[in-house]
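Reopening this one. Same input as before:
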Amino acid sequence: PTVLLVLGVLEIHVDQEMVGKISAAVKLMQCSASLDVLFLLDGSYSIGKGSFERSKHFAGKLCDALDIHPDRVRVGMIQFSSTSHLEFPLDSYLTKQEVKERIKRTLFRGGSTETGRALKYILRKGFPGGRNSSVPEILIIISDGKSQGSTVMPAMQVKERHITVFAVGIKFPRWEELHVLASEPPEQHLLFAGDADDAANGLYSALTGSVCSTTAPGCKVESHPCERRTLETVKELAGNYVCWKGSKQPNAVQASLCPFIRWKRVLVKYPSRCFRTVCPDPCDSQPCQNGGTCVPEGLDRYHCLCLVGYGGDFHCAAKLSLECGVDLLFLLDSSAGVTLEGFLRYKAFLKRFLQAAMGQDSPMNVGVAQYDDDVRIPIELGQHKDTLSLMKSVDALDFSGGRTLTGRALQYIAEHGFRSTPVFADVQDDLPRVIVLLTDSKSQDSVAEAPQYMKDRNLFLIGVGSSFMRAELTKVTGNPQQTIVYSDPQDLFNRIPELQRRICSVDNAEGCQAQSLDLTFAVDASSGVGPENFLHLRHFVRSSCLHFTINRDLTQIALVIYGSKAHTAFALATHTSNSAVLQAIDQVPFLGDSASAGNALLHIYGDVMTVQKGARPGVNKVVVLLTNGGGLEDAAAPAQQLRHSGILVFVVVVGDAQRDTLLRVAGSPSYLVHISSYEDLQYYQGFIIERICEEAKSPVNLCKPNPCMNQGVCILGPGSYRCECHGWEGPHCESS
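Same output, byte for byte:
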């Protein structure tokens, strides 16, 4: 690990990322408790004017984290050297700005370092302008710790009055003396003013919980190994020299050896612990996909540096291309119910989708309509042939804010949206016609007739909206698989690849029935799922199988159920027809113990996706893991092992689960489907089947997974493979 080294004096053993988090956390700190804070600044000659200015800078920086107000935090300052001088009492300045300006105007006085006298001054006078111990009192001593008198007794008396003392070193401090001054535990109350951000963080971390409330959500105080250093002057025996000494005899001297002493500056180290508040930065969730690098921009913003071939959206999604030819019309809700903010969000979504999906040679014709009481088509279908001019027209769309008459808008678009005119004569009439409805507001008129409008005119309607719109969108489209819902505003932008797939599936209703595929479902049958929800999962597997043609040449399906152990309900080669598979699924029992998805994936790797159990070389292989999110802690390594062998792992999770854990198992957000409830599983089935079908079309490595048994080595040839056997015989090393 690297270290945070502050002017060679304080070394905190953390990596560079943590250094940034410590510094950034200061910007989130704000103590609003009732608190009296008194700065005691060393203004002696041993400090010097330069270090005194640094002390002032630290005091000002700390004020940024204090909510200075007569009823909350009050701040005062005393400068000490030979004598103590009250710079300003705690009730003089009422705002943060006034206090910081007054600190800047404080002049260096000079003199000897009488820290003990300064503490006695406080014992005698108290906190000038304070609230007489009715609120917590914080004393912040900023000094090099080189007092010319004893500080032990007055420091102890100050702390006995329940004053919390922070000892902040400056220049090359004498840490032993500052240790005496600081409150217990000294590790939390000893700081160094050389790095104002780090010191302010350390001070605030010590006050968090006891005096100040906690900082922003997700922030926490952490302990790190650190080392405090200083330069000290020590005696060193350099050798001996000849010297002359007197003698008892009169008029006589004698030669002798005398020690030669010199003074030397040495670096002394004090190992310790440092307590600092760290806050999550926006890159902690690893938002950049496909190998993209996340670069934080402050506390809540970031950007992704994407690899070549990615950058289809903000998070480095694969650059999309609508290779399918369609006439595509977006219908944007511009009513008061969606609000101006929602309308602007839809415009941003539309622009990002077009940037990601429209290439120069895209066979797609795009139009945009918007509605409230009325329907307008500001961008006619096929009006723009280049993305740039289309973007400018999208930017020019204005929010109107009337009633939400979705039913009327759909009827109008069905009749007039795709009408060819001489101006747009180049629009191809034989292309599939798709309408994408973007709405986040319940319709104020009937939408029940909408599916029939679309069917009568051979139009394909996709509904996009927030999750509370799911029921209405299903009614509008007439098919839950033609609805796309998002959980929050940012999640809307994550739906771009899904929308692209839905648009291009218009002419591909058969899915992957003609593709060869070895497919295994792994179903969580543990007590965490429960018997009722297990039936939902079982029904999902059953209805999914209807999308495949099951036989030896096309799709083979296996089913594994698991609790703490995994059980093969049926293997890939067991059933050769759809009816046999459906009948077998109905017989699968609920198990009801604890869950271990890791054991299930290991079982699939070693005992299901193998040539011995019916897996076919040269055929794409997919595992669909259905779980409630429990028992995934041991699943990341087996999932990676499956991927390394060319077997794709889709993770379908129902309910609450840690996204970081899910991503480790899925390997990529592209292979993770997170669903809020078991009832919603049906709405995602079409999307999941589409993703499986896409993978079924990808090129296959004939040697992954290894078709050779008994440690045989698979060797690829042009369009084929052979097994090199050791002590075994047969095409797959199966005979001894």
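So the earlier flakiness isn't reproducible anymore. For the record, Confidence is low (pLDDT under 50) at residues 1-7, 421-428.
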